[in-house]
C-alpha cells in the first residue's frame, strides 16, 4: 500500500520521510491499513516557508473572507459526517454514536461557526482609539501557528479542525497541523475538506497544512523556529514541557494544555445530605470516556468520618459493577498502569482495581491516602493517572484540609460540594479561596467533565494545567486572543490604518474603546 501524502503549500505531495507508521484499532489491537510518513525536517522547513508567505497574504485579506472559509469548512465536515465519524471510531474505539457523530462532530463545526461569527463582528480584537493623540491599537495576527492535536478528541481538538485551529485561523494566522499518531487518517479526511474550503473561498493555498509525525528532535526544532508565530499544544505533560522549554528559550508563545487532576472537595454536610448521589456522580464522571478527559476528576478530598467511608464504599461498588472501557491506545494503558504504581509507591492504598486487562483495558481503579501521607509526598501523589483511575484524600480535620489545598498544583477545574441547608457555608468560605487560586474554573455541586462551548467558559488554568493562566482553549472570542499580538499605530495616516481602527466603524456592530468609552459609533471627525 502507498504511503499517504502530506499537505504542504496547498497540495498533497509525497513526504520527505525517515520512516512510516500505522495507527492501531484500540478495540482489536490490529494495525489499520493506511501507512503514514514520519517527516524529516525538510517537510517542516517547507511548511514554514509556505506558511510565512501565506501569513503575509492573510494579513491583507478582509475578515469576511476568513469567516467564509471557517463557515464553509464546517459545512464540508458535516457533508462527510458519517465517513469522518467512522474513521475516528476505527482509530480511537470511541463510539461512533452518540460520541463522535452526534456530540463531538457538532461541537467541532459549532466552534468553527463561532469563530466565524467572532471574525465578522470584530470586537474580539479590542480596538482602542485615542482620537486626540491619534494613537490606536488592535490585536492582530502573530504569524504561522503550529498546532499539536491530542489523542482523546480526534475532532474537536484536532490540529486541523479543532478549537485551536479555529481560533488561530480566525485571528488571521495560517496553521501547520501536527496530527496525533493515534488518528492520522481522521486528520487526513479533515485536512482534505479544509483544503477544499481554502480553494473555494480564495484563502492563500498554505493557510492549512498537515504533517503526520516528526522525530522528537525535529518537534523541538519546529517550536523554536523564528518563522513561527506561536504554538498550540494539547497532550502529555512530559512531551509538553520539553516543547515548552524549547519555545520559551527563544521567547515563542506556547499555549499548552498539559495535565489536570481536577480536585473535587466534598464537604460533610453534602455527604450527610446526599452522599450516595454524589458517589454515583463521582464514579460516573471518573468513568466517562474511560476517564480520558482532561477534566476527569482524578482527586477527591474529604474530611474523615463515617460519611466519608460510606462515600468511598459507594464509589468502589459503582466502579466494580461497571465494565471497564477501551482505552485510546496501548500507550495510554501502559502509562496508566505506571501512574497507578507511582501513586502506590508514594503511599496510596488500592481500594479497587489497579490491574491491566486484555484488550487495551484497565480495571476501574480507586485509591486512597490519608491527609498526612498526602502532605508528606504532595508532588508524587499528584501524579496524573490519565484514564479510569482516581485518588481520594481523607483529611483528619479542617486544618489539615487547608494544608492539602495549599499544596495543590494548578488545575483546569476544581469543585466543592456543599449542603443546601447552610451547614457547610462556613467551611466553604474557608476552603473556596484556596481552591480558587489553583483552578481555572471553579464549580459548585457538579462534576467537572462537561466543558460547555460558550463565550464565558475558561478551559485553562494555572501551571502545570496550562502554560499560561490568562488564556483559554475553549470559548470564543477569548480563545482567539492567544494567537494575536497587540499592534499599536501612532500618528499613522488614516487610509493606512486597519479597518477596525479607522474613524468609521467598519460594520456598525464592532465595539471599540474610544476615549475610554466602549462604543459602536464612528469616531467623531
Keywords for this structure?
5-stranded mixed beta sheet; 2 domains; globular; 7-stranded mixed beta sheet; Aldehyde Dehydrogenase, Chain A, domain 2; alpha/beta; 525 residues
Radius of gyration: 24 Å
The CATH topology of the largest domain: Aldehyde Dehydrogenase, Chain A, domain 1
Strand arrangement across the biggest beta sheet = 14-17-18-13-12-19-20
The mean pLDDT is 96
**Count of individual domains:** 2
How far apart the termini lie comes to 67 Å
Binned, the helix content reads 25-40%
How large is the count of helical segments?
14
The assigned structural class equals alpha/beta
Q: Tell me the name of the CATH class of the largest domain.
A: Alpha Beta
CATH architecture of the largest domain: 3-Layer(aba) Sandwich
Shape: globular
Task: Give a description of the structure.
The chain is of the alpha/beta class. It is built from 14 helices and 23 strands. A hairpin with a 2-residue loop joins β22 and β23 (517-519). It is globular and about 75 Å long. The model has no long low-confidence stretch (mean pLDDT 96).
